[in-house]
Amino acid sequence: MKIGVAARGGMGNLVLMSPFLRALEIMGHEVELLFDGNDPRTRLLEQISWLPIRSQDLSTTEAEQYQLVIAFMHPGKLSGVFSLTVREAHNVLLVPLVRWTEEPQHEIDYFMRPARMLGWTGPPPAPFLPTKKPDHDLPPHVGFAIGFMPEKEWYKKSYAWQRWRDLALALAPHSIVLYGGGETDHTVAQWIKEGSTNVIGEVMDAPISEVAWLLHQYCRVLVANDTGMMHVASTVGTPVVALFGPTSLRKNAPHGPGPIRIISTPAGCAPCYGQEERWSQCMGGCMNTLDTGKVLAAIHALM
Questions:
Q1: Burial level of 133, CB count in 10 A (0-12/13-18/19+)?
Q2: Contacts (Cβ under 8 Å, ≥6 apart) of 107
Q3: Residues of 242-253 as b/e, b for ≥16 C-beta within 10 angstroms?
Q4: Comparing 14-18, 81-85, 110-114, 219-223, which segment has the lowest mean pLDDT?
Q5: Dist. CA 158–CA 135, nearest whole Å
């Protein structure tokens, strides 16, 4: 059966969707990904997908080639993605799935639901991410995935700038490489470097397949808050120290083959993401409750 998969999300969502896509392939289905061509996140998909990618702006004729279209989005979003003509097209079935429930399941299990509807009975396949060797190497190092994201209030799950610098200083003489992307991450990286003599480089705005290769080959352990980079590192087997505050560990924990240490906030208000009223009141202070000593101990345990 030819299946179109429509989804919205960042790097982490795309990595955690990979077990579902692999399950469809193992069952013998032909799969194409349908993404908004105007969405800048489509660039991420183009970097890490091994499947064909098509625009969601399908004509009725184009839509009819699919026996099933699986849409990972709130039902209210469907009309903004597919026209009524396409949604009612012959042999096209949209399966809108709601992400948040009172008892959130892990993101991989969320994505696997349609595969199970189609007959998949085993555990999810392992997350998968293609890698590509870049034209430069790095020495062995501890990686910091800064992940300071001001958009959509994601800064609430970011580790404080000063804490990154404190970690770098405490890890001397171990070499540190900073991973990230976007204007804010560049600013934070420069600030960390100015106060730390053991920060030896940055990997910023690089193709994800190349970042994955560098993480796998040279990163002894990656420290990251709940970001896509955390999932990329875990997927390629890099040890990860994951820092959790307002987002759900049960829903977003890394699931790759690499060793993992979780440092989560003791704040009683967490997790609050996904609960609209509580999230709107969140100031992200719970990330400052993470014990730096515990983070350092976890890093040393994995090195």
A1: exposed
A2: 12, 13, 16, 251, 252
A3: bbbbbbbbebbb
A4: 81-85
A5: 30
Q: Which residue has the higher pLDDT, 118 or 271?
A: 118
Task: For residue 124, give the DSSP letter.
Answer: P
DSSP H/E element including 163: helix 161-171
CATH 3.40.50.720 location in the chain = 2-117
Winning range, highest mean pLDDT, from 47-51, 205-209, 273-277, 290-294: 290-294
- Tell me which architecture the domain covering 141-302 has in CATH: 3-Layer(aba) Sandwich (3.40)
Give bridge partners of residue 202 from the DSSP assignment: 178
The structure tokens 């804010």 sit at: 184
What's the confidence (pLDDT) of residue 116?
92
Who contacts 42 (Cβ-Cβ below 8 Å, separation ≥6)?
A: 35, 36, 53
Sign of CA dihedral 4, 105, 248, 207: negative
- Counted residue by residue, the chain has a size of 303
pLDDT at 40 over 60: no
Report DSSP state, residue 173.
Answer: T
**Amino acid occupying residue 281:** Q
CB 175 within 8 A of CB 198: yes
Q: Where in the chain is the domain with CATH 3.40.50.2000?
A: 141-302
Topology of domain 2-117, CATH: Rossmann fold (3.40.50)
C-alpha closest to that of 129 among 25, 44, 250: 44
Note the pLDDT tens digit of each residue in 149-193. Answer: 555 566 777 888 888 889 999 999 999 999 987 778 888 888 888
Asked whether the beta carbons of 8 and 228 are under 8 A apart, the reply is: no
Buried b (16+ CB within 10 A) or exposed e, 70-105: bbbbeeeebeebbeeebbebeebebeeeebeeeebe
Read off the tokens for 227: 């970001």
